[in-house]
């Protein structure tokens, strides 16, 4: 027979209400009383009926997180930090992987996944703002990233343009003048890639250096694509003395390709990335990169979402927050 709350109450010598207060983390309980209840729960093996509790309270104490690809190091590290930020506030996070598909992104806004959570941390890469707004429902939602920067939604992002400009200025200060950019297109202006390319162009303009579209190599944001992009530049005879990968995995792929071709880094070509994933510190040479404030992004986004959950209402206009950044100067571009 299943252990009930009444069994726990009798074993602990307290009322049913006290057991309920302990299970719901009510703060005004004497430590000794709370310990007796917790000991009884452990001894009897009581398991709370979370479904019933959520029906009574209207809360699940769970947050949803939608990311495109958990195998991407940046997203994996961000997910870990978001989970820790939520746990410190008494929440758990369940994750949905969208594979950058519009149907999956929009599907996460409705159905079982949405019902299981009190609010959503959402990183769309394909779905547009109107489609999201039409399906967002009443539960709070906080956007992450740059794909949808719409005043209807709360958003926590990073200073892509400013950070890319700062990194480009660092390369210029090191005497680099032919800085290849991996992972963007010359005509791109939106999203992470476009904003970072804009920052690069602004730093060149400020330094009086003409933008050269021939130094911009389109590439998917993967290691193999970064390596292939650099190989293409070398084989086409494009001269460059630095590589700016618009994320770290692109830069690491480029670094690998340069080294196996005998190009000295940083002696002949400096290499820099963006994101400061853990692997960047342990590359050989270690990777100069932008640390985009991942801890702050996690703290601010979870905090904002829980503020919205607590208010139980949707704001007329979203709050937009941009985390700070830091250059991490390492061996690949000192």
TrEMBL record:
SUPFAM superfamilies for this protein: lambda repressor-like DNA-binding domains, Periplasmic binding protein-like I
PANTHER family: HTH-TYPE TRANSCRIPTIONAL REGULATOR GALS, LACI-RELATED TRANSCRIPTIONAL REPRESSOR
Domain called HTH lacI-type: residue spans: 3-57
InterPro entries for this protein: HTH_LacI, LacI/GalR-like_sensor, Lambda_DNA-bd_dom_sf, Peripla_BP_I
Signal sequence coordinates: none
PROSITE patterns: HTH_LACI_1, HTH_LACI_2
Keyword Transcription regulation: yes
Pfam annotation, one family: Peripla_BP_3
GO molecular function: DNA binding
Protein name: DNA-binding LacI/PurR family transcriptional regulator
Keyword vocabulary terms for this entry: DNA-binding, Transcription, Transcription regulation
Lineage: superkingdom: Bacteria
């Amino acid at each position: 027979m299943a252990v009930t709350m009444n069994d726990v109450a009798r074993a602990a010598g307290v009322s049913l209400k006290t057991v309920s207060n302990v299970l719901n983390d009510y703060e005004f309980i004497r430590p000794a009383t709370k310990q007796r209840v917790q000991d009884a729960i452990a001894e009897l093996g009581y398991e709370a009926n979370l479904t019933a509790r959520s029906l009574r309270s209207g809360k699940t104490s769970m947050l949803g997180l939608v990311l495109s690809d958990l195998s991407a190091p940046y997203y994996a590290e961000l997910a870990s930090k978001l989970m820790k930020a939520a746990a410190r506030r008494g929440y758990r996070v369940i994750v949905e992987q969208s594979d950058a598909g519009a149907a999956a992104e929009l599907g996460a806004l409705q159905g079982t996944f949405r019902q299981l959570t009190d609010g959503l941390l959402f990183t769309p890469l394909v779905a547009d703002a109107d489609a999201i707004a039409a399906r967002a429902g009443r539960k709070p939602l906080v956007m992450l990233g740059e794909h949808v920067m719409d005043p209807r939604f709360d958003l926590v992002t990073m200073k892509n343009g400013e950070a890319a400009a700062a990194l480009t200025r660092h390369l210029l200060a090191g005497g680099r003048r032919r800085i290849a950019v991996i992972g963007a297109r010359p005509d791109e202006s939106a999203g992470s890639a476009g904003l970072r390319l804009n920052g690069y162009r602004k730093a060149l303009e400020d330094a009086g250096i003409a933008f050269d579209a021939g130094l911009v190599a389109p590439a998917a944001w993967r290691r193999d694509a970064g390596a292939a992009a650099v190989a293409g530049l070398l084989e086409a005879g494009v001269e460059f003395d630095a590589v700016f990968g618009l994320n770290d995995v692109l830069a690491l792929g480029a670094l690998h390709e340069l080294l196996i071709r005998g190009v000295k880094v940083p002696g002949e070509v400096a290499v820099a990335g963006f994101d400061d994933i853990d692997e960047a510190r342990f590359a050989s040479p270690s990777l100069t990169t932008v640390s985009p404030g991942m801890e702050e992004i996690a703290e601010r986004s979870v905090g904002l979402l829980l503020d919205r959950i607590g208010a139980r209402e949707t704001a007329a206009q979203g709050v937009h927050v941009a985390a700070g950044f830091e250059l991490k100067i390492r061996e690949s571009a000192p």
